[in-house]
Amino acid sequence: MATGKEILPQLLKLPVSERAELATELIRSLDEMEDSDAEEAWVREINKRVDDVMSGRVKTVPWAKARKRIEAKLRARRR
Question: Model-level pTM?
Fold first, then answer.
């Protein structure tokens, strides 16, 4: 059986729609390994973050600005 590293170059040559379908199926297969504790923790975290934004305790930033910050941090780590 071929490894993921061996078949990845071939998969990347597929049309975008087929790659998206494969990605969806792979993610779905991971979701089947449900962890109820993790699910509950994520629900709590999401609710906390929504509350923080709605109350004004935290401010949102446009995606373009957030992306620049993330890219800058990644570049700094590579050095």
Answer: 0.45
